[in-house]
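User: structure tokens for this one?
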Amino acid sequence: MREPLLEIKNLQKKYPIYGPLGKLFPPKTYHKAVSNMNLKLYEGETYGLVGESGCGKSTTGRSILGLVQPDSGEILYKGKDLTKLSDAEFRPLRRDLQMVFQDTLSSLNPRQRIGQLLEEPMIIQGMGDANERRQKVLDILKMVGLAEDHYFRYPHELSGGQVQRLGIARALIIDPKLIVCDEPVSALDVSIQSQILNMLTSLQKEMNLSLLFISHDIGVVRYISNRIGVMYLGSLVEEAETDELFANTLHPYTQALFASIPDFKKKERKVSLSGELPVYTDEFKGCVFHTRCPHACDKCRECAPELKEVIPGHKVACHLVK
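Assistant:
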């Protein structure tokens, strides 16, 4: 059996909710940002993680990189649990694990030129001498579609699409094995989105990268992903290969997501989901989706379903799916 490059087991992350007097008193309760999250990512594949804003996608991605410390669970990279490593032990793995941020510009030092920004990770990792680092930066800039003269520019001098290319270049500069892409094209025009996605696909094949692609746009995820996990209120509700998921959608929330895709051939647009995400605390009972599900029954309100395989390679967490 093929071993996963990355495996997440029962990941949990909570944030305190304070009363009107803030942190003067203990928190009233805790909000579950991520709850019982399980995920496997294999070498060379793109795993699309999709869901609406606030469902815990970014928290999951940041937990992998150690930017968020989970409360419990395991994050196994090549069999090594990242959650149990100290900063000194984690530092060598930074070369394998990188991230492309949604707001790339805010993640870059505005006082450094692009050449300095790209050379800095190589200096930290002890890669090459000054001439080798400079040449690698020029090669990476060309690879992501930026010109050599960008080496001397500042990040604020770039357009939105160029900034995202710079973010991808910074992630690639130390030859990683896994890149977490957190909404990398959500703020871009459709034409620029297409360019960035095509570039990512090309670079993945060229460099044998594994991608965890996080997005709220099911159309974008469908275009780039080999497998898709649908996330709602901190946990996966459905997971399958891309073609299988679109051909045989099982979970009511996934069906609602697909119904939201614009179809200009239809004269009427059916709204199949209403309401907003509830506050997911320790007092919340039942299926995470039962407050908005049109098919919810008493069992859904009492106990949470497990994510189980109903068709080979197709998993779903729903009491109504047998």
